[in-house]
Amino acid sequence: MRAARLFLVPVLAVLSLTAQETALSGAWLQTKADDIAAAIQSTVADMNFIKRPIARGRLTKLNPAYKKVLIAISDKEVLVKLDDREPIHMPPGGASAPWTREDGEKFMVAAQVSKDQLIQTFKNEDGERTNIFKLSPDGQSLTMSATIKSPQLPKPLVYSISFGR
Fold this sequence. Notes:
There is one protein chain. By secondary structure, this protein is of the alpha+beta class. The protein has one domain (2-164): Lipocalin (Beta Barrel). The protein contains three helices and ten strands; from the N terminus they run αβααβββββββββ. A ten-stranded antiparallel sheet has the order 4-3-2-1-10-9-8-7-6-5. The longest helix has 21 residues, at 2-22. It is globular.
């Protein structure tokens, strides 16, 4: 009996986690987005007049109000695809892996999945981006909260985009 219990508890825990993770998986369409341009302006407002337009342009280019997100979670990988961009493949469990963005910039990217959220992090020498994808209690909406930090910015850029099925 003890051997059966030792086997069943971990198996049930894994099955339970897998079932919970699948709720995040699927295609999601934007229902609402923060005013990202205003968030960018607030972030760069205290920069000097030479750096401000450069930072604003780069942040604007790299932070569109995504219209669609596709999430696929398995025991072997976590995949996130935003709009028509290339999918981002990450190992599960928070391990970092190298990833190169379409413009050639290199990052270490990681994914941490729990019951109702996916935390995706990008890091390189220029800074760090964290996307937190949080599932609503009813499972019908998903909110992506993005935080961009860099030593070049006076404060983090923070905004959210909501998606529905």
